[in-house]
Amino acid sequence: MAEYTETQRKILKIGKREFLAKGFKDASLRGIVKEAGFTQGAFYGYYPDKAALFDALVSEVADGLMEQFKMAQQAHFELIPEDKTAQSRELSTDYLNRFINFIYDNFDTFKLLICCSEGTKYSNYVHDLVEVEIAQTEIYYDRLRQLGKLDGTVSRELHHMITSAYFTAVFETVAHDMTREHAVQYVNELAVFFNCGWDGLLRLK
């Protein structure tokens, strides 16, 4: 966890409010500095530009979810030597619940990432998650096929479309300001729907 000065905390608080209200592209750096009561020079002593301020607000949480996501991928590979690959769908749903609670523990940050990041390097954040998911899952499925633990095939194009639709649907919780309780119910229903579809295409053993 980063340590901030009182000045930085004030800049971050006002910056977050400005980005949430207007999005990154329309947020006014001059307005942020003015509201904070600082000079432009004081601001630049902490952040070189508006993008750096946005990055300071979201990077730790964005990286945190990505790391959790990679851990979830590894957990699936650990099912193989334990001969528990048939439990992959249940494991995915378990991690989905962990992810949604992490998202709601950091809701404002994910609101910035999902709804306010156009014009920043985070504008493709969901797409980046999708690409990690597809790359690792295809390696996992290839391993299962070699072991005779998976029947069925799916093209990369269809895999990408389904995965992209799934991630977009999950982050609708943030876009539509669902309560945590509603979001948990929603993503678990979503998991049932998508798992049934995957089971129709790929049968785990």
UniProtKB/TrEMBL annotation:
The keyword Nucleotide-binding does not apply. Residues 5-65 form the HTH tetR-type domain. Residues 28-47 bind DNA. Keywords: DNA-binding. The keyword Magnesium does not apply. GO terms for molecular function: DNA binding. InterPro entries: Homeodomain-like_sf (IPR009057), HTH-type_Tx_Regulator (IPR050624), HTH_TetR (IPR001647). It comes from the Bacteria. This is TetR/AcrR family transcriptional regulator.
